[in-house]
Design a protein that fits this description.
Blueprint: H1 2-38, H2 41-62, H3 65-71, H4 76-100, H5 102-108, H6 114-140, H7 144-167, H8 172-194, H9 204-238, H10 241-273, H11 279-306, H12 308-315, H13 324-350, H14 359-375, H15 381-407, H16 411-418, H17 422-438, H18 443-467, H19 476-482
């Protein structure tokens, strides 16, 4: 009974979070296309270089205490107040350090304009820290609708500001100001929706208990950040902002499904898993999550892999064609990142072994570091994309192996769940690529027709392969039962 209740909460939470985020992503995607046409690759590269610094600082200031609070079984409100002031103090100190050393960091990365951008983005460090505890409380209480509202409103505000300022000629600063506006909107919204206010108390015993768990979350996030930003840092330092721009644009796009499906679902999955004490129920949830994520992300990445040229020229214009091979390699990379690496950390956290999710990151970082050292400063965007694809598959393989051993799930079952939808997506993508070669229409028209063909063929083929009913996914009443039932198969069958 508990398993069914938790599964319903997971499905409902994913539905709410994805609905809010999907609406916001639609606005974000439109804004991304407009920004790509209004700005230069150098503008995207400068912002990406700044986020290498700001991103890692934001990860450290959280101290992993938000995730620790979600798993904490004691007095939640007392624990929340105990960690709030520690997070805020750490964030203030970190923002001050960024402000002081901004010029030195800009000199190291050979980007003089970077210093002023870093100082502006330091505001985000404190703002996001102030929002972390009430956001964790909303996740712990399964307040999915409130989080969906935040997912919907914050990107709309930031995208509107970015596009408006880019049109007015603000260049890279249009992205910077939009990013700051996003954080401020998140802060105001989460404090209004959560209704939580910190008490004037600090229990060091509770703080120490939470920090013992949270320190591994920090190491997990830091390791993830290092792996996911080494490529940007390398290109910014050795190849310049133009090459980084050709890398950053497709990188941001391949990360959109990860943010939409995996990261949104992680916000639901971890709080839900903390309620499951039975290993068998968690194993079933593992297969269910893998199938659900594969169903949504496999057709996107395989479409990009086989239709990268059509996608880039049709959406961004001919000036972005040098990033086509980068998009293809990063699509292969993202299949491992989204389907194997991205969601499985929640299972290690839920079984109170967060350190086991850190070691695969270290192995992947070692592979990436060895490759970058071997390549010296000669490697361009394509070679870097190839290297980090290899590193991500090393990480994903170790994550899968650890969960298979812990839950005693047959590896074949996990692999079938992870690759669910790949065959249908591959056939649909090949058909879309064939259509684009046969047509003689403007690139945007070819892209639109290719997407429509791809989406419909994917649903038809997947419906036939799984249910012998090609129209299964065209019946809206069936979606509620189709997706939740995708994970009902026993993990030992």
């Amino acid at each position: 009974m508990q398993s069914r209740s938790v599964e319903r909460s997971f499905t409902r939470g994913v539905a709410w979070m994805s609905a809010g985020s999907l609406a916001a992503r639609a606005v974000t995607l439109i804004g991304s296309v407009m920004l790509a046409r209004l700005l230069l690759p150098e503008h995207f590269g400068l912002f990406s270089a700044a986020m290498v610094v700001i991103g890692v600082v934001q990860l450290v200031t959280d101290l992993g205490l938000g995730q620790a609070l979600i798993a904490y079984p004691g007095d939640t409100r007392k624990a929340a107040s105990s960690i709030f002031y520690a997070i805020l103090a750490t964030a203030g100190a970190a923002a001050f350090v960024v402000w002081v050393f901004a010029d030195a960091l800009a000199a190291v990365m050979r980007q003089p304009m970077l210093a002023s951008v870093l100082r502006a983005l330091a505001v985000n460090v404190v703002v996001m820290a102030a929002a972390s505890v009430p956001l964790a409380l909303m996740q712990k209480a399964h307040r999915w609708r409130g989080q969906a509202i935040l997912e919907f409103t914050t990107p709309i505000v930031s995208t509107s500001i970015m596009v408006s300022l880019a049109f007015l000629g603000f260049g890279a600063w249009s992205i910077v100001y939009g990013y700051v506006a996003r954080a401020v909107t998140m802060l105001v919204g989460v404090w209004w929706l959560s209704r939580w206010r910190p008490a004037l108390e600090m229990d060091w015993t509770v703080f120490a208990s939470l920090f013992r768990f949270g320190k591994w979350i920090v190491l997990d996030r830091l390791s993830a950040f290092v792996l996911l930003t080494m490529d940007n840092l390398y290109l910014a330092r050795w190849q310049g902002t133009k090459t980084l721009g050709y890398y950053a644009l497709p990188y941001n796009w391949v990360n959109l499904p990860v943010q939409q499906v995996v990261l949104q679902s992680q916000k639901v999955l971890f709080p839900v898993l903390t309620q499951l004490e039975d290993a068998q129920a968690r194993a079933e949830m593992l297969l269910k999550a893998c199938r659900m994520f594969s169903f949504f992300v496999a057709p996107i990445y395989l479409f990009w892999l086989l239709n990268a040229s059509l996608f880039v020229e049709g959406l961004f214009g001919p000036k972005w064609l040098p990033c086509v091979p980068v998009l293809q390699w990063l699509s292969v990379y993202a299949l491992a990142h989204a389907l194997a690496g991205g969601l499985m950390g929640s299972f290690y956290w839920a079984m109170k072994r967060p350190e086991l999710a850190v070691f695969p990151f270290w192995a992947a970082i070692a592979v990436a570091t060895a490759g970058l050292v071997y390549g010296g400063g000669r490697w361009g965007a394509v070679e870097v994309a190839q290297l980090f694809t290899l590193a991500m598959y090393v990480r994903a393989s170790m994550m899968i192996y650890g969960l298979v051993r812990f839950y005693h799930v047959p590896l074949s079952n996990v692999l079938r769940a992870v690759t669910d939808g790949w065959l249908a997506a591959l056939l649909a993508s090949l058909s879309a690529a064939t259509l684009s070669h046969l047509m003689r229409a403007p690139a945007p028209v070819e892209l639109a027709m290719g997407i429509v063909l791809h989406a419909n063929l994917y649903l038809l083929v997947q419906g036939w392969l799984k249910y012998r009913k090609p129209l299964q996914y065209y019946r809206l009443a069936e979606w509620r039962t189709t997706l939740p039932n995708a994970g009902k198969a026993s993990p030992t069958s």
